[in-house]
Amino acid sequence: MSSPPPPPPSKPKRRRLLSLPAVYPCEDIAPAPLLASLLSLAADVASRRAADVDAFPVLRCGVRKAVRLAGILLAFLEEVQDAAAAAALPSSAVLGLTELHVAMQKLRFLLADCARRGARLWVLVNAGMVASELRLVLGSVAAAMDALPRSVAEASVEAGELARVVSEQAWRAAVRPDGADERAARSVRSILDQFKDGVAPDADDVRRVLRRVRVGSWSDCSEEIAFLESEICARLDAGDENSNDVLVMNSLMTFLVYCRVVLFDHIDARKSQPAAAAAPAAARCPEWIRPEALQCPITLDLMTDPVTVSTGQTYDRASITRWMKAGCRTCPVTGERLSTADLVPNTVLRGIIERMLLINGVTLPEPSAAGGGGHRHGAVANTAVPFGPAAAGAARLAVAHIVAQLSRGSTEERRKATSEARKLSKHSVFYRACLVDANAVPWLLCLLSSTDAAVQDNAVASLLNLSKHPAGRTAIVEVGGVGLVVDVINVGAKAEAQHNAAAVLFYLSSNSPDSAEEIGRIPEAIPTLVQLIRDGAYRGRKNAMVSLYGLLQSAANHGRAIAAGAVSALAALLLSADRDDLAGDSVALLARIAEQPSGAAAVLSQPGLVARLAEALAASSASSSRSARDHSVSLLASLCRHGGAKVVAVLGRMPGLMASLYSLVADGGSPQTSKKARALLNEIHRHYEVAPPPPASSASSDAGGDRVVRVL
């Protein structure tokens, strides 16, 4: 019996900032390869001397000392290597060289963290700790130099002099935060205290802090925010949600949000060499890729961490994780039961998305570690209460500025304000609540009529995000905004604005059947959705069907949907759809409409529709799609209930239908589906047991039967 294959190697965890996980060389390593590796390491650190020192906005003096010391150490090691060419290094040199190797690893990590773009504000507020770590590393270098045998330390006259210089300078190095660093860090703490009191800080004080860490644009702020969010997520994943670091990071993140919103007048795209270099790669993306294939089927947002489930469907990791944590064990698209909860990263699709975004200077966040990452962005964003009063104060002040720009800003200012509202409300429950409390909804509704396409698009997307909040839905309805949303579906400047407006109606209708009925009373609401189902693109159709389904929870809207031509539009889509999800949504809507007698009559009046439904049921039975089975059986049951014996007779004569129903009774999945399939079978059998078979000569001349067959 062969042994099972080894498990795939797990993805290494991302190193936490300011952690220095050095690796000791193996114990039995020879001095020569250890010296060669140490030379490479020292050269890497010393190479920062010429070009990179100016990139360190914090601890500049300490960094210069460390880099200069690395350069002297490199010269010493080169002298030792030259001497070793004539005489082999003694084995006693391994201990000192090993300690030097570990110290230089830590120094390289520390310098990389100090220079890291996006981490500059965090390094500033931790400048004291960073300086302490740097002192410890330099002390380790000095101790390692003293541990080297004299035959190595004085391998030549020049080597001896360089060794003494390295040891003396490493021991004497007084590394502490620069005076400007300490002043900037005090300013940050003072600004956070003002946020706690709800007081807007002096703009010049804020700009001085940003200049110190070289944050000079909207994109620089966004880069710092993205870093802090990723660090918070890493700590939440590690179970450190109650640590002081998380509190401070969230306060700094909202401080930067305030800076981005208030201090920078325009949104700049990052123009960097990687983005320019990515342009040819983006041009090589397969032309057959549909844009909707890059969207998560659950949220319809662009996937940032695509993963594949056991059915072969791909979702964004955060969305499918929430789906499974809610107790759902089926594939949202196919309805198939998931044989395993494993999520396999779709690296090919992620690469395509990255290449398409890089041309615009946008980078994707690092993907979650497989099997973990349950918190990730959801834990930071989907919280109604911020982690501290400073964060709450900064967020409210930023939102107040956004609302002021929405109400009286120029077109350019409104474009930026709506973009900020859209970005902040996309994932954060707290920012949604802040925007609603700050009375942003009426101004966003006013901007739906803006002649600027970007303003209108951002305003609709912001309202879509706010409609996910109960208070946001109430505010939209109370100020009479439903009609304005419907108008955007009709005449939106961009297709995306029309699609988002259709999705807003779904959330508004989800409050209660009364809300759905109130929306249905607007003359253009349901006809507009039906028109989008008939003529819209894929995403527009999806959103329109979901919204119409929500409106149909009110019985009063069934007649309005029928009058607007919903049945014919859905029938045409079902008969011609080349996507299974659109066909499934069409059946679901028809099943909801057919619950009423008038709806069943409208469905029965569509030529060829019932035959197509029977085919769809057989196909869904073969593919084990639970949602398709449920809706197909429900629809046929409603048609039999309201259509009478003639409909039952026609269904009984359809090839393949009976076999599908028997299969559903035997192993049809949900108890409700099996129960409906059994009732439908009983009704068909009862009809053929009671009704005598027609004479062969008159079977084809039964006018009533012919009429039913032609209609169906």
From TrEMBL:
Protein name, entry field: RING-type E3 ubiquitin transferase
SMART domains reported in the protein's UniProt record: ARM, Ubox
Keyword annotations: Repeat, Transferase, Ubl conjugation pathway
Enzyme Commission number: 2.3.2.27
Pathway membership: Protein modification; protein ubiquitination
SUPFAM superfamilies: ARM repeat (SSF48371), RING/U-box (SSF57850)
Enzyme class, spelled out: transferase
Catalytic reactions of this protein: S-ubiquitinyl-[E2 ubiquitin-conjugating enzyme]-L-cysteine + [acceptor protein]-L-lysine = [E2 ubiquitin-conjugating enzyme]-L-cysteine + N(6)-ubiquitinyl-[acceptor protein]-L-lysine
